[in-house]
Amino acid sequence: MNINQEQLTIFKTVIETGSFSAAARKLGKVPSAVSMSIANLEIDLNLQLFKRNGREPVPTSQAWVLYEKTEQLLVEINQWKQHAFALSNGLESSLTIVVVSELLYTNWTDYVSIVEKQFPELQINVISAPQEDALQMLINRSAQLALMFEREQLDSREQFIELKREVIVPVAAYTHRLAASKQITFEDILKSRQIVVASRDHLIKPELLFSKQYWRTDNHYSACAMISRNLGWGILPLEIFNKNAQLAKDLKILEIADFTPKFEYYVDLVWSRETELGAAARFLIQHLREKRLNV
User: Fold this and answer.
1) Which keywords does this chain's UniProt record carry (predicted)?
2) Which of 53, 171, 204, 231 could lock onto 226 through a cystine, CB 3.0 to 4.6 A?
3) pTM (two decimals)
4) Counting Cβ atoms within 10 Å, is residue 60 exposed (0-12), middle (13-18) or buried (19+)?
5) What does the DSSP assignment read for 213-246?
6) With 90 as the cut, is the pLDDT of residue 102 above it?
């Protein structure tokens, strides 16, 4: 059986127009070519698709069953061709984006949607990881793009675009002794266990670590759970409280006398200079650059 796209298109058009001659006019072919294509299709399928007793061909019940599937099949063939064309013009076979766990509460899906709208057939993989691990994934090329906070020291291999600001704040459960204190000093912070989101590699020192005693976790969901259970204090994105009303009831933003307890950081889209990016990644970068210029 060797059925091609042209045969399916002719078959669909004959049913929709009601005759070989009308289908031929619509497709810009001679009637004999349409008739021969249908005859060959019937031979390939070993089915009678049209009864030819009268003046015009009448579709058989089998033809109507196949017709219902033909349009979707033709759409899928065209999508396959478009995807193949895109791949031949530099579209990556898949795009992996790593989102640092602090930013899972933000509208990071907006950036994924921009890519999906332009490249609907592209496979997109989204991974969450601590900040240090996200950067390492770019370096070892297991991810092509990363949404992450600005870094105190830039790696010479990275490039980035600033996207927006995010605020992170120190918090503790209302039952924690820090929450009950009217004036929290830096010394109080040093002596209290901190729940810190950090790399899975314990040799890498966590960022924003203040306490002498601390517990590590690789995501903010578990950090929230531990802080809520009064197992320590921690630093969390302020956006969490806007997205989760229960957390606002369980956790208190700490007021620290010795320094301003709000940390504003830029969120960056980051990629490696050493990685040859595909068309989708390049499209997103260019889209965001143009958006910044128009602000």
Assistant:
1) DNA-binding, Transcription, Transcription regulation
2) 231
3) 0.65
4) middle
5) SEEEESSHHHHHHHHHTTS-EEEEETHHHHH-HH
6) no
